Amino acid sequence: MTEVGERVSARRLLALAIPALGVLAAEPLYVLVDTAVVGHLGAVQLAGLALGGTLFTLISSQLTFLTYGTTARTARLHGAGRRTEAVAEGVQATWLGVSVGVVLLLAAQVLAVPVAELLAGPGPVADAAGRWLRIALCGAPLVLITMAGNGWMRGVQDTVRPLRYVLIGNGLSAVLCPVLVYPVGWGLEGSAVANLIGQSLAATLFVRALVVERAPLRPDLATMRAQLGLGRDLVLRTLAFQVCFLSATSVAARTGAETAAAHQVVWQLWSFLSLVLDSLAIAAQSLVGAALGAGSAQRAKGVARQVSWYGLAFGVLLAAVFASLAWVLPGVFTSDQAVLAVIGQAWWFFVLQQPVAGVVFALDGVFLGAADAAFLRTATILSAVIGYLPMIWLSLAFGWGLVGIWTGLTLFMVLRLVTLLWRLRSGRWAVVGAVRGEPAAA
Fold this sequence. Notes:
It is a multi-pass membrane protein. The protein is an all-alpha fold. It has 2 domains: about 5-220, no CATH class; about 240-425, no CATH class. It has helices at about 10-40, 45-60, 65-80, 85-120, 125-135, 140-155, 160-180, 185-210, 220-255, 255-295, 295-325, 330-335, 335-370, 375-400, 400-425. The longest helix is centred in the N-terminal third of the chain and has 38 residues, at about 85-120. About 50% of the residues are buried. The model is unreliable at about 1-5 (pLDDT under 50).
């Protein structure tokens, strides 16, 4: 148990976590609106949006280090009382985002259609996806500015303004999308333009927030190189997740239509709850980074244990809720009896994983806040290679279906839990200093 002085109040945790949850949920909610609007254009346009949107998400998910890595570095400086330097990390992350975004923008103009054709085969769906992606990736620098903005603001423990900026941007996109698609007559391309306009507004608000802080706005290559070093480990970690999740979807699809549909229903619920649990991880990241930046390893360890218990309690609550909904909720997503019969094979794995996931996501936030990205990278890759991937492909070879796939996911989560708890107990992650490895101020 931690001493009273080392704890943070539940109110403080929620004050950071709830707005962060809003930011995490804003994009999936906008995608639902976009899908509903485009869905009335026809099957080709909807399929093009699905393919283009998937590619856009895969690209952007590999660059989330601009958010999580920036939070880790900024939180330490904020905890050390060096706010100007903390905000300067946000400036450099923004420059880095613009640089990477411009490269993606230019690459999209050449590669969008060929990549879409590689995945879907030549034809109208690939053409539609390519056209949408070319416009959407014009917003790559804007999206990455927003990621960097979320990162530094979380680091200085301000999660309210990012929520406001993202909601304003996505709200504008949601209003413009049906107007540009139908009355203006731009069709699928109108969806991409609406998204681009909303991203422009959100990015402008984040840039304005940097300017009013009066931090130096010049590019600093040394800081950007340091950010990329941390980013490399986070990118590899994210890549391990993507390989596992895409493999599971592929095996489910190869097993049969009912299996693929059932996996999609349960997987989307799992993904949604991961956003809910990740909001607690964001709060943990900010608080742990600040504690280490202030030179208090003991406080960081106390927060780590505290949020782990909160994550466990939250996971148990979610497990109880979804266990009680087992005979009701699946029917909301499909009325196909064959699919409903298969959903039951994955449902109880999904339910029983929630307490494990609650602790895992909380500790992810702890170690991200400690900038312990190299350990997270190694633990995630080993858990994937030992637990998840073998079970997924054995499921295809031996016809184990969803039982095998979700056994693999469960092994993956349990192995991650074991490695994270081992790391927590070791205490080696709690390196104090305004920058990891730099001695704390006296």
